[in-house]
Design brief:
Oligomer: heterodimer
Strand content of chain B: 5-15%
Number of strands of chain B: 2
Radius of gyration of chain B: 27 Å
Radius of gyration of chain A: 55 Å
Order of helices and strands of chain B: HHHEEHH
Number of helices of chain A: 13
Helix content of chain A: 55-70%
Helix content of chain B: 55-70%
Structural class of chain B: mainly alpha
Shape of chain B: flat
Number of helices of chain B: 5
Strand order of the largest sheet of chain B: 1-2
Chain lengths: ~500, ~160
Amino acid sequence: MIVNSLPIWIIDMVGSILMIIFSFLCLNLIGALRNRDKSNVIWTYLFWVCLGLAGFAVSRSAGHILKQILVLSGNENLWSFIRPYSGAINSLMFVFVASVTLFFERIWKIYQQISRDKQALQGVRDELLFLNQNLESLVAERTKELALSEHNYRRIFEVSRDMILVTRPDGTIINMNPAGYDILGLEKDDDFPSRKNFADFFVHAAEWQAVKRALERYAFVANAEVSFKHKADHQIRVLVSASRDVGFSDKEDTIQFFVRDIEQRRQIEEQIAQADKLASIGQLSAGIAHEINNPLGVILGYTQLLIRHEAADTEKYNDLKTIEKHVRNCKSIVEDLLNFARSSKPKEDVVRMDKALDDVIHFIQQHAGLDNIEVKRQYLPSVPEMVLDEKKIKQVFMNLLMNAKHAIGEKGTLTISTDFNPVEGQVIVRVADTGHGIEERNLARIFDPFFTTKPTGEGTGLGLSVSYGIIKNHGGDILVESKVGQGSIFTIVLPLITANPRVNHAKIHSYH
Amino acid sequence: MKSTQLLIRTGLIGAILAITEPALATQAHSAPEGLYAHQLAHIFFIISMGVLTYWLRERKLVQAVGWRHIQYSALFFILWNVDAFFVHLVEEQLALIDIQRVGLWEINITSTANSPVLLWLYYAAKLDHLLCVPALLFLFFGLRRLLKDAETQTTRTVPP
């Protein structure tokens, strides 16, 4: 078949030239890509592929062009000589390009890994750069936050009303907040706390041991009720919570204690229980007294009627007099019970407290004698006149002073003082003696009707009950503090009610 | 001790060299080896481009225009290798085709297989630049796009 060879010749020549051109254009592009990112292995890979293809294009195209020129010029023998070299170089270029191309997958994996590492490094670099640029402000900010945090926690430590205490595992005190000093009655200047052990404040060693065991076993203690020694030589009840701080730093373990003083709460609870008990007794007493009072009145009336018709100095007259005397005693007791039960509304007399006290002291000096007892009067002149049932208040003072005289015995000091709290609107009267005091077990019962420590026949046990009832009937309160061998202090707290209603009004408002 | 061992080894090597026939030292390469090597190089090129195409698709790189063009380039190179392999096969390896120049721009193509189809196929296959030039053209387009992407890319992310 005879065909025109021109198309083959043209395409061969043009194609060969184009191959050289495009292969070098490709090299130029990949060179530009590599210049942008010399560390990019994909660009390096493509560079070697393009380099191989350029070599292939040059060797092949040069061979083809040379062949056409030599054949057309009649130098076929020369071409026959060059041809094996051209073909061999061409084959080597194939193999080179094909070999490089086969590494694509491996190169791509390396590229991915490098990219990931690069990105991670970039992130770290950015973070480091940010930290480097902002280190000073970051440190300042962090320091400020730490200072604020330290201030907050220090403030909690300082202003807490509960004791916060840090000790070593053996109980040696490391630090204690101001509330701790208050609870224990200690002064800040006392030689404390570095040499003290927390165990020393426990009244009962067994309670400290129990707390310690619980800490060792469970690493915490919650609301254990124990007794502490107060500096003023008395006990206080407290709730102890604690937890061990283990392994925060290389320093030794510590124990953090939180101690709440519940002594006052306990006292209030006892007072409420006492008030409830006395209210119940009062209710019972009032019921009985009312029932007994009428028959006693009838008995007294008839007894007096019989006495009127009986001649004096007869045996029957004397018997009737004995009945009358005992009925009167009974009526007196019944009246006392009614006073205790606060069944009657107090009268409204305008009374000066110091004058009422002086009257009672004078009466006792006249009739009972206070010769060996030193009487100290510490009246506050500013105590205003009050609206009270004078007779009943004097009865209260009489009971308290007679009890004090009895407690002092032969010799001692009786101190009577008045005080006024305008903020709370209260008038306070204190009767303090240096007598034998009241045993702790009796303190809760002294206001109970018919409770007495006096020998039989010397007291009815109604004096303090009646006083309690009268003071409560006036809206006040009566409190007692006592130490065996040192004496007792009875404190009467009365709300200020004056004849001037504006003052009372102001007081009422001040309560709310 | 060491000098004795060295002496023994030297003696053994000398004996082997003395008794060996010179003809066994190298292998002779006759004329077809060049053609076979060239044809095998074409097959290797086809396999290599096939593998490249496979990984471009497997890694989903062909979703990017630049890599898609490089894939087309690989495909054209495969076609070109098949074409070249065919030409070498029929013209030189199997000697089915014979070409005689009969004029300045005329050639006489004859086939021992007496097949006109083969003649026309051979004539078409001789125009192999119609395959290898587009292959390089697509490679050029692909690289140009990759360069453009690299220029516009502000944040480099980890490829899939």
